[in-house]
Amino acid sequence: MTKVFVHFIWFNFSNTDNTFSSHINTTTSSSSHSPACSVYRPQFTRCITSQLIKWFSNFREFYYIQMEKFARNALLEGVADVRDLTVDRESELFRALNVHYNKANDFQVPERFLEVAEITLREFYIAISVGKDHDPSWKKTIYKVICKLDSDVPPEFKRNYSE
Q: Which residue intervals define the domain Prospero in the entry (predicted)?
């Protein structure tokens, strides 16, 4: 399969016809769809479908684990102002994500990824700093905020991968 740097891509699928709808989303729900869903629908086999679901679920899980980890570390280090939390190409958080998803640096990470990562980090920091993490479903609010930051599917992701 072609290497792809994932920019919050979540493939929602239909079991009846094995099609995927490209959906830039970081929520765990597959019920919300962005306008991009109706634009791009490649065909995949059942085996590829299963692997992509696992891959993108792992992507989201690793992304959010890193966000929570870095937010908690910022609190432990005494960061008092959420505006002091930034994500740029030189930040440790960016390096952790880029090494995990773009090991060979094959792709230029879009600026929008950095913006959304910074917003996500700040959302985690705020939630943890006010004690919302004591509620079992505390992350759902963050997922809803990040979901609203959907963007168009980059052209390099619109090629037909079923060949």
A: 1-163
